[in-house]
Amino acid sequence: MGANFGRFRHLMRIQKASETVSAAQEAVEEWSDWKTWYCSITPVTMSESQRAGASGPLAADATHLLEGWYVSGIAPDMRLVKSDGRIFEIVEVLNEGEIGETMRLSCREAVKVVV
């Protein structure tokens, strides 16, 4: 794979969750920024999510495929936030060729509920 720096143009904040206790003694999940990451974002259809790629098939509930340079430590219990507020929950982490050069994240875009 040749270096194609322009395709990783979306700046994302990778976030980790932590649990705290509210004043009412209820568990509250809080997200904090862990790292930033440049990536490409590609929407996937059901047929694409079932098609086998270089690292195997994508997760069935993935709505987007994010690809960028490899970052050690990313896990499915994290999420990514785009500058426009869109949230992508990580479903699966795929280390392309197991060489630590690029990675693909199968993600599910979170739907915001407006009340």
Fold and architecture overview:
The protein has one helix spanning 46-50, and strands at residues 10-21, 27-43, 52-53, 56-57, 64-69, 79-82, 87-95, 102-109. With 115 residues, the chain is mostly beta strands. The chain has a single domain, classed as Bacteriophage SPP1 head-tail adaptor protein (Thrombin, subunit H), CATH 2.40.10.270. The strands form 2 sheets. It has a 6-stranded antiparallel barrel with strand order 1-2-5-8-7-6. Strands 3-4 form a two-stranded antiparallel sheet. A hairpin with a 6-residue loop joins β7 (87-95) and β8 (102-109). It is globular and about 45 Å long. The termini are far apart.
Largest sheet: 6 strands, antiparallel, barrel
Helical amount = under 10%
The CATH homologous superfamily is called Bacteriophage SPP1 head-tail adaptor protein
How many structurally independent domains?
1
Rg from alpha-carbon coordinates: 15 Å
Give the low-confidence spans.
51-55
Question: What is the CATH class name?
Answer: Mainly Beta
Number of helical segments with 4 or more residues? 1
Strand order across the biggest sheet?
1-2-5-8-7-6
> How does CATH name the architecture?
Beta Barrel
**What does the overall shape look like?**
globular
How much strand content do the residues show?
A: over 45%
> On the 0-100 scale, what is the average pLDDT?
83
